[in-house]
Amino acid sequence: MALSSFRMARINKQLQREIALLLEQRIKNEAVKDAIITGVECSRDLEHARVFFTALSPEKREPLLEELQGVRGALRTLLGQVLTLRHVPALEFVQDRSLDYGERIDGILNRLGLDSVPGKESEDDPEREPTDE
Questions:
Q1: For residues 73 and 93, is the Cβ–Cβ distance under 8 A?
Q2: Strands annotated E in 24-130
Q3: Using CA atoms, how far apart are residues 89 and 80, in angstroms rounded to an integer?
Q4: Average pLDDT of span 48-55
Q5: Which terminus has fewer CB within 10 Å in the chain: N or C?
Q6: SS3 of 72, please?
């Protein structure tokens, strides 16, 4: 059964939303409430789902991963109660490193003096000369 990419995107978004809500409201483990669910990627057969997460502080991510792995069975059971899918995918939690990557790129651009977008000047830039428009 091949799912359309539109349906897969809908399922991924629904899983992301439900997982975030369940972690916040129904899972008793207080540590997992620090998880910020940034995305979900289901396999085409809906057997497996990679759940991407991050935390506000980078040092909390590794312990948070262990806590999330510990509640994934209960989370999958709760998902089965709220989703209309025939089969709830097995959950695999993965640290989302895209924010770290973006910050690293910003740092490199700042060091190179490329921190502003070319051709776009700020309205409150004191060095900007007024234009006659």
A1: no
A2: 36-42, 48-54, 90-95
A3: 9
A4: 96
A5: C
A6: helix
CA 106 to mean position of chain CA atoms: 20
Q: Is the pLDDT of residue 16 over 80?
A: yes
Q: Looking at this protein, which amino acid is placed at residue 67?
A: E
Q: How confident is the model at residue 103 (pLDDT cuts 50, 70, 90)?
A: confident
Model pTM above 0.85? no
Q: Measured over all CA atoms, what is the biggest interatomic distance in the chain, rounded to whole angstroms?
A: 65
Tokens 């309205």 appear where? 123
Beta bridge partners of 51: 40, 93
